[in-house]
């Protein structure tokens, strides 16, 4: 595996291999067993959007693996002043061993991979968030033990998170159900693929989609870059919340996941968030372990 541009590029076997390595790296980290698998390697982190978890977990991850990272904000890079991504890719390929990029257009990530000669890892675009979903899958397996036949229900905006959850869930044999308002559905091509390759549904019926779910998932109503739509979205998404009513129709042992940051009393009530905080913060921790696995797979070839 050279790049991680989107989950659709990985086979189910490759996803499982990443999760297995992530589990091993988590065990080693918890037990003080060093794993300096990327000694001497340098990762560039290009951020065109804000981040807490992605930035910190990639930086700590590279340190744990014996390498180092460079935080490159687009505010400071020439890319922010219009230098072509093709040129940036060719220059950075001569200094670095890999790049993680968080940006708007998926095409920019694909262009970096096309023109660069080093591994490119997608740290979130408007289209998808593969690193997050690998950590989510790791968390689901850690708590539930398996994927096949489990029902994953996502409630809210059909955004980057939804797109990646659909691909990851279906590839590993989960039933994926999405509840979202009309006009805010996930990517149409991905929904078609999901329906053809597994058990998939998407409707405005929150309780219907959530019924018997093993995993409930939500994300913010307005993503980064949609700040000007936030007020309008509060009205559109009012019913698309994980609350006690939703929990009551899910399985009694259902877990709740959230990629974070969370907006309490919007997409999730404070009560449900706190009740399920153990899972949610384990999920956040697993970003570190899952990303280290991706780094090892990409940077060691
Ligand atoms: N979930 C996630 O990607 O968090 P950050 O935006 O803080 O990186
Ligand atoms: N959908 C959110 C995810 C943040 C991790 C966003 O793109 O802002």
TrEMBL record:
Gene Ontology MF term list: amino acid binding; ornithine carbamoyltransferase activity
UniProt cross-references to Gene3D superfamilies, sorted A to Z: Aspartate/ornithine carbamoyltransferase (3.40.50.1370)
Top-level taxon of the source organism: Bacteria
Localization per record: Cytoplasm
Aspartate/ornithine carbamoyltransferase Asp/Orn-binding domain residues: 149-296
Catalytic activity: carbamoyl phosphate + L-ornithine = L-citrulline + phosphate + H(+)
Entries under PROSITE patterns matching the protein: CARBAMOYLTRANSFERASE
EC number: 2.1.3.3
Positions with a binding annotation for L-ornithine: 160, 219, 223-224
Start and end residues of each Aspartate/ornithine carbamoyltransferase carbamoyl-P binding domain: 2-142
Binding site for carbamoyl phosphate: 51-54, 78, 102, 129-132, 259-260, 287
Enzyme class label: transferase
Key words of the record: Cytoplasm, Transferase
This protein's pathway: Amino-acid biosynthesis; L-arginine biosynthesis; L-arginine from L-ornithine and carbamoyl phosphate: step 1/3
Any single GO CC term annotated in Swiss-Prot or TrEMBL for this entry: cytoplasm
BP GO terms, sorted: citrulline biosynthetic process; L-arginine biosynthetic process via ornithine
Family: Belongs to the aspartate/ornithine carbamoyltransferase superfamily. OTCase family.
The protein, known as: Ornithine carbamoyltransferase
């Amino acid at each position: 595996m050279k790049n991680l541009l989107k989950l659709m590029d990985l086979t189910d076997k490759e996803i499982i291999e990443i999760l297995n390595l992530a589990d091993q790296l988590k065990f080693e980290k918890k037990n003080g067993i060093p794993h300096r698998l990327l000694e001497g390697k340098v990762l560039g982190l290009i951020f065109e959007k804000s981040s807490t978890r992605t930035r910190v977990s990639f930086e700590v991850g590279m340190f744990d693996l014996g390498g180092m990272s460079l935080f490159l904000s687009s505010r400071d890079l020439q890319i922010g002043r219009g230098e072509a991504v093709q040129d940036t890719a060719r220059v950075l390929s001569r200094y670095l061993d890999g790049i993680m990029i968080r940006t708007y257009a998926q095409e920019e990530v694909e262009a970096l991979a096309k023109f660069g000669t080093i591994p490119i890892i997608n740290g979130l675009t408007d289209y998808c968030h593969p690193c997050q979903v690998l950590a989510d899958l790791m968390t689901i397996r850690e708590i539930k033990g398996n994927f096949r036949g489990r029902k994953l229900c996502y409630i809210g905006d059909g955004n980057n998170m939804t797109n990646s959850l659909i691909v990851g869930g279906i590839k590993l044999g989960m039933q994926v159900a999405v509840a979202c308002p009309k006009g805010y559905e996930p990517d149409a091509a991905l929904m078609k693929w999901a329906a053809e390759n597994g058990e998939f549904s998407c409707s405005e019926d929150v309780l219907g989609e959530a019924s018997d779910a093993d995993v409930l998932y939500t994300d913010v109503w307005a993503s980064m870059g949609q700040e000007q739509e936030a007020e309008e979205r509060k009205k559109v998404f009012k019913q698309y919340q994980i609350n006690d009513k939703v929990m009551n129709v899910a399985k009694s042992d259902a877990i709740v996941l959230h990629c974070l940051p969370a907006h309490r009393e919007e997409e999730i009530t404070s009560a449900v968030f706190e009740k399920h905080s153990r899972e949610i913060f384990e999920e956040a921790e697993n970003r570190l372990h899952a990303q280290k696995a991706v780094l090892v797979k990409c940077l060691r070839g």
